[in-house]
Amino acid sequence: MSQTPEAAGARANRALQSWTPRPQATTVVYAIAHAGSGAAAWNPVASALPEDLELRAIRLPGRENRIGSAPHTSVAAAADEVARVIAADTAGHGKPVLLIGSCFGAMVSLAAMGVIPSGVPVRALLSVRQPVPAHVTPASGASPGSMSAAELRTWLREYQLTPAALLDDDAVYEFFEPLLRADLSMTDGYAFAGSPLEVPVFLLRTAAPEESLDPGAWEHVTSARVRVHDVAADGDPLTEAPTALAEAIAEIATLVLPAATPAPRQT
Known about the structure:
α3 crosses α4 (about 105-115). The protein has a seven-stranded mixed sheet, sandwiched between helices. The chain has helices at about 5-10, 45-50, 75-95, 105-115, 150-160, 165-170, 170-185, 235-240, 240-255, and strands spanning about 15, 25-30, 55-60, 95-100, 120-130, 200-210, 225-235. It is globular and about 50 Å long. It is of the alpha/beta class and about 270 residues long. β2, α2 (about 45-50) and β3 (about 55-60) form a beta-alpha-beta unit.
């Protein structure tokens, strides 16, 4: 099957991953995963989306096929790259855009929205597992970079900042710990200080554990509406319930793009 030039360009760019190119899609969803993760975490979500939505995951340096590139050392640097990647890719397809991030990725997504060119047609920002637009500070006052491996692991588990499957496997945790530490260290003390956005923000809330989301904590980041959107999932929707997360993304797309209602999936 032939591919459109924009799909081919997205696949060729190491910062972007598109597993299911959909030339007829009406909207492109750009996605950033949690700390320590690359693009691969979004593959099941991409497959579960309706045909009118195409997901393109953003891969930051230091992971997967960018393993040889040094990770960013600040949220601002990561946000600048994300904004450039989305702007360049959008110039090729011209379609409306949704931007979604999970945990660390939600923070980077928000920061990217603050610097993304005004001509990029972003219609909404979706935030997963990021209850406030700032980094979670450890109760001990210690930064992630200064914690021991055991302390960092405990802290990640307590605040549910990393999938349990990664934390429960010693070998997997040891492999990802340096990148986790790098990602979390660069966000330490970060808080969004840009001009208010002009797009709605959707805070995705899972059923269990029940998440206490405060839309009021987000009101200063956007002049548009902040909404809590429930996801029919327990735990981390990205790693544990990708189909439910895909359904939530599709539902939000119908709210912000009523003329581009995703078609139902065929069974």
